[in-house]
Amino acid sequence: MSTPPSKVIKLDALVIGGGVTGLWTLDRLVAAGHDTALVEQDALGQGQTICAQGILHGGTKYSLSGLLAPGARQVAEMPDRWKEHLEGANAPDLGQVRVRSEACHLWRTDSMKSIISMAGAKVALQVKPEPLQKHERPAVLAGCPGDVARLPELVLEMPSLLETLAALHPGRIIRGRVESGTPTDGEHHRSAVTVALGEEKMLISARYVILCGGTGNEDLLRMFSPDSLPVAMQRRPLHMAMVKGADDALPELNGHCVDGAKTRVTITSSTASDGERVWQLGGELSEIGCGRGEDEQRAAARACLRATLPGFDVDDDRLKWGTYRIDRAEQDKHPARKRKSRPDDVTITKAGGLVIVWPTKMVLAPRAARQVSHLFEPGTGAGAPPFPDQSPPPIAKPPWETATWH
Questions:
Q1: Domain limits at 310?
Q2: Between 66 and 16, the higher pLDDT residue
Q3: Tell me: the pLDDT tens digits for 80-110?
Q4: Which long-range contacts (CB under 8 A, 24 or more apart) does 79-84 make?
Q5: Using CB atoms within 10 A as the burial measure, which of 152, 196, 237, 278 is most buried?
Q6: What sign for the dihedral angle of Cα 335, 180, 388, 42?
Q7: Quick check: is 303 in a domain?
């Protein structure tokens, strides 16, 4: 026999999914006067957010051909917008977020295509590379051929970002599993959402339900729209590689190595709980790596760093290597196509009282939240937090804390 709900909560909006986009959307709706809460099944940021490399880039990766691609246009304004929040000049105030680095580096291999793409990036970008003199290069890039440039792209520590956003709204974020939800037409009817909090169940009556669950949106769509799905989801997988070691074996490095019109590898640095440094290795390495097993991907990561960082000792026995897999979840605008391309911008669909949000990239989370808030008229006031006695979900562990190292 099913346990009946022990409590009924009435809200203007319920956000499902506690990644950066869900948390930012919660903040925007509360600020707009909507009585809003957020439910997260596991840990805040679990999945795409905690695995994001944290670069607030301004379109570099999409402009390597020398053309200002649509994807570059959409993210070009984002570094300045994020900076306002990080400086506390705009809400939400992200002044407590840890900025890992104030800039990234951009360097190239010695192929002719790579030389051309560096020149193209310099022409096309609003956030333009600043060439460095030989003596200005970090030691790990000293042996790189040709130009090394500095990009004014901040790198954030993702756990710190999640902690800061969550702390803004105590009593509005709960950990629970959405068990059922009824469709709604939005304006005059409500959706009844049953949320399991351990052994206890709660019924949330919401005028709007906003799906920010990443890959979890797929099952949520079937729950709330069982008869006709308003949108389809696509997955674009990554097989990320990681390197871990002491500071003297693994220097601080954040940036992109370009090869032709591709980002051959994107490297970002973090610090593990045991004090050792970790590099995350993304870019083309992680995309092609989806077809490799773990052993193959670790070997490919070594080969990639040997080719892109001349002089860096990839064979240092103090280094440990690991991998993990993550799916990028996005709206599929062309379900019939086998090859899934990245959407150029955030995609938001409103179907009655259901709003489906796909931010596409972490840096676009503020843009997604703003577009969601613009769907509704200003509210009459958020009122008191609906869950004053509930503890918020924990922050997800970064992938290097759960990986198997070799």
A1: 102-156+235-329
A2: 16
A3: 899 999 999 999 999 999 999 999 999 987 7
A4: 79/127, 79/152, 79/153, 79/154, 79/363, 81/366, 82/56, 82/154, 82/363, 82/366, 83/154
A5: 278
A6: negative
A7: yes
